[in-house]
Target: Diguanylate cyclase (GGDEF)-like protein/PAS domain S-box-containing protein
Amino acid sequence: AAKGAGRGRARFFSADLLQAAEDRRLLEHDLIDALSKGELAVHYQPIVGARSEEVTGFEALLRWNHPKRGRISPAIFIPIAEDANLIPQLGEWTLRQACIDAAKWPGELRVAVNVSPIQFASEALPAIVMSALANSGLAPERLELEITESVFLEDGSETDARFAALKRLGVRLALDDFGTGYSSLGYLKTAPFDKIKIDQSFVRGTTEEGARNQAIIAAIVALANALGMETTAEGIESFDQLETMRKLNVSHIQGFLYSRAVASEELATHFKDGKWVIQPQGPARQRHI
Ligand code: C2E
Ligand code: MG
Ligand code: MG
Ligand code: MG
Model:
């Protein structure tokens, strides 16, 4: 019986894996047409000055509204797009769309666009960025590209060349999910970042982990300040977390406490006199998008 159960379990696990692989294959297939079918949209989450509570810009976050499955998280479909070689096309579309939307926003508001390591590895990236700027009329300093530490795992001279070409265009660069990758601090010496985004995992944690996380955040802020970079704390959901980040002198805040990512059309209704001053809202008042 034990043997039988073992076999049964093995069969169960492999069936599960098969199901997952099949699922992925189906999603990949649907993703190929998602763009042309208009199922993808770029939503925008405000990034807020920690003290001023003034919105300084928005992060562009891709949304997929699947006709049968409903909303699918980018945490699921971006890796699929990367594996299936769909990211160059998806990434370029998102970048162009984000520039077009941001060019209509008032004032100096910036847009931050996530750039996959696969896009970053391509020699074509600077030309695509230049074209997206020219086509939309967006000033280069209003575009920020969010890059993760994983780009430093690639060939160093290629990486340096890409940074130099992007900086020549005048766009801003942000280091996303800082502290979660495998890289050393060495690259901060030369990589021309304007901002470090402190990963959500440092904001969370129990009270016990909290003290350690705060020590790490304080060190990141000190490092960023010394190198002339701004900081954004991601994933701020509570007033307590907001207060802690202010105390630690983090310059910018992003999180559900202020707002989730909202559709482009909805954004326009929030601006007043070219500004969007935003109040933090308790979880009870959160709208789900
Ligand atoms: P990310 O770049 O680190 O983006 C921040 C993520 O944190 C977003 O998840 C955002 O909705 C979420 N977030 C913001 N505030 C809070 C909060 O208070 N609490 C919690 N729990 N989460 C918060 P989202 O939109 O699901 O995106 C997940 C990841 O997918 C992004 O992480 C990014 O790596 C990737 N992604 C999204 N859009 C794109 C895109 O256009 N291109 C590429 N290459 N990747 C993208
Ligand atoms: Mg990001
Ligand atoms: Mg991030
Ligand atoms: Mg993240």
